[in-house]
Design brief:
single chain, six-stranded antiparallel beta sheet
Length: 74
């Protein structure tokens, strides 16, 4: 079974292995988040989204819908 970013808990640090949506790949790349990058889940809003992730020194807000399209290696 493949894990996605949506399966993570606050504080988890994982490696991004695959993005299942081409447009999302482009958006993440423009924000400095590329395949093989370490991602830390910093916060989750009260209703489950958005999720705040840290990529190096940047913080990115991700919808849960998009997090489900981001495969990870824990």
């Amino acid at each position: 079974m493949t894990k996605t970013l949506a399966d993570c808990k606050i504080g988890d640090t994982v490696t991004l292995t695959k993005v299942l949506d081409k447009q999302l790949t482009i958006q993440l790349y423009s924000m400095g988040c590329i395949l093989g990058e370490e991602i830390t889940l910093e916060r989750i809003a009260p209703f489950g989204e958005p999720m705040i992730i840290r990529v190096e020194d940047s913080f990115i807000s991700i919808r849960k819908d998009d997090a489900e399209k981001m495969e990870i290696n824990a």
